[in-house]
Amino acid sequence: MKKVLLAAFAALCFSAALGFAESEQSDQQRQRVLNVTASRHVYDLNPATASFTSEAQLFTALYEGLFSYDPVNLGPVSGLCTSYKTSRDKKRWTFTLRTDASFSDGSPINAMTVVDSWMRLLETSGAPFASLLDNVVGAQELRMGTGGREGVKLIAKDDCTLVVHLKEPMAHLPKILCHHAFSITSQKENVFSGAFVLEEQGEDFLSLKKNEKYWDAANVRLPGIRISLCDDYPENSYMYNNGEIDWIMGNADYSKIIRKSNLQMGTEFGTIYLFFKTKNSPWDKVEFRNALLEAVPYDRLREKYAVKAETFIYPLQGYPQVKGISDSDADDALELMNQARRNNGIPLDKKLPLVFATVEPDENMKGIFELLKEAWEPLGVSVIAQSSDWARYNSSIPYWNADLFFYSWIGDFADPLAFLELFRGGSSLNCVQYVNEEYDRLLLESSRLDLMEDQYKCLAQAEQILLDDCMIIPIAHPVSGHIINVEEIGGWKTNGLDIHPFKYIYFKEPEKTEIRNLVSF
Fold first, then answer.
1. What is the pLDDT of residues 193-226, one digit of tens each?
2. Contact of 57 with 66, CB cutoff 8 Å
3. Whole-number pLDDT of residue 24
4. Reduced to 3 states, what is the DSSP secondary structure of residue 267?
5. Which of 6, 114, 137, 233 has the most neighbouring CB atoms within 10 Å?
6. Cα distance between residue 488 and residue 30, in whole Å
7. What are phi and psi of 274, to 5 degrees?
8. N- to C-terminal Cα separation, the chain
9. ω into 76 cis (within 30 of 0)
10. What 3-state class would DSSP assign to 388?
11. Count H helices, E strands: the chain?
12. DSSP conformational letter for 136
């Protein structure tokens, strides 16, 4: 009897093993190149200088840092780092790295590789996110050219141990390190640290294949990705309906999509807004900006947007309510402007020029310009348009001698600091050179606090200062739109940063549909 049971058990185990092997083989056969279409864009393939969302999406395939984004909540998950600990004063972080990590050419990734990658980032001119490392001892000095590498306290203790010394506690450091700017890079060309490598690049496409040297290659199911760059929306929709495209990143004619359930919409952790530069008088004074904001008809400014914004930061769970910008009154605006003129010795009848940086031929921007011109001319303000094209608009802002700009910002990590860093004194993202000591103090104070509730209170106070200083005019929170069938493609989730890590995406096993015989005999 015992022999019979053992034989039966052995047969059962063999059957299960065979079933698993067949299932694994079936999954391998099901996986194929993922076909994606995105808007035409000249991709900056340097993680240190790239700043567009489309590049952030691409870098989830090509590069990895100590942490990467969770595909659902965008929180930090283990990348090249397996664990970390902090000192009692929270100013020393010790990261333990994987022993099996390597670049796509097989060369090892170790603690010194991380140090070199971050040093190159700090030394890269125009790297927009480099200042997020300013809290590392010596990092700001290296970035600004007043110090050398020897002063930066990034220490490779051994191959698997990286020690980082901070000037102040920084509880959100793992969130920041998810960002592509802090990816581990090689000095060699076409060598990558992520789940995929760039196989070929053309004028209208990028072709990626699986990186077999990636430490987690066994769990990467796609053999490759092809990203077509096309702004022909009806054509993209036609190809999707025909099954030639698996995922359209927003650039589609939604009305022509047959399966409407494949439209994935979500509000992004971002804000569309106008902001002032304070280089030219009188717009360098808050009282004049305040008069302008009092005159804006906010209902009309925001009427075309689905998710209207009165504050800078999209409301997060647990984040205190901030008094936003929504009320306006033309008579009060004129009184505020006249008082500002009297306080500064400017005649009441003098025309005040304000240059608005616009994009041609963008109808939305044209509409905003006309609305502001209509609202501000009664205040004695001459609103003048200076135009650029979208390809050069953002990169021109630091050097453009205009007074008002249009901007759209998506948070790079799930924290209010992803927005407030844009106005921190000395930040590489602070293109308006805004300086407010109390604002900077609150950002610093938040990093010293342990509880998220207390951190958020400090950050909300800082946001209120920014709004009260009339530096920005919030318009809307952007909405993302993608065409993808999540019943057939797994690992894709709608989220606030609109980033969908490629390493988790795969083709699902088709659901078996039972066809019932409804004919009776």
1. 999 999 999 999 999 999 999 999 999 999 999 9
2. no
3. 63
4. strand
5. 114
6. 11
7. -105, 145
8. 47
9. no
10. strand
11. 14, 20
12. B
Q: Is the dihedral of CA 254, 255, 256, 259 positive or negative?
A: positive
Task: State which H helix or E strand residue 164 sits in.
Answer: strand 161-165
| CA nearest neighbour of 325 among 505, 474, 120, 140 | 474
β strands within 220-279, DSSP E: 224-229, 247-248, 263-267, 270-276
Q: How far is 278 from 342, CA to CA, in rounded Å?
A: 20
CA dihedral 500, 237, 54, 172 (to 10 degrees): -30
Residues 6+ apart with CB under 8 A from 297: 328, 371, 375
Put simply, whether the predicted model's pTM sits higher than 0.85 gets the answer no
Q: Which residue has the tokens 């993608």?
A: 482
220 close to 192: Cβ distance less than 8 angstroms:
no
**Assigned token pair, 102:** 């390597």
Inter-residue contact 238 to 366 (CB < 8 Å): no
Measured distance CA(431)–CA(168) in Å, rounded: 24
Q: How far apart are CA 382 and CA 309, in angstroms?
A: 26
Q: Token digits for 113?
A: 């590789």
The two tokens of residue 486 are 């999540």
- Determine the Cα–Cα distance for residues 237 and 251; give it in Å rounded to an integer: 9
Adjacent-strand bridge partners of 356: 385, 404
pLDDT per residue over 221-243, tens digit each?
Answer: 999 999 999 999 999 999 999 99
Q: Between 517 and 451, whose confidence is greater?
A: 451
Pick from 410, 462, 407, 464: which is nearest to 432 by CA?
407
Residue with tokens 């019943």: 487
Mutual angle of helices 330-343 and 286-295, in 10-degree steps: 160
Pinpoint the alpha helices (H) of 276-354: 286-295, 298-302, 330-343
Q: Are 143 and 130 in contact (CB under 8 A)?
A: yes
Tell me the sheet residues that pair with 224.
Answer: 209
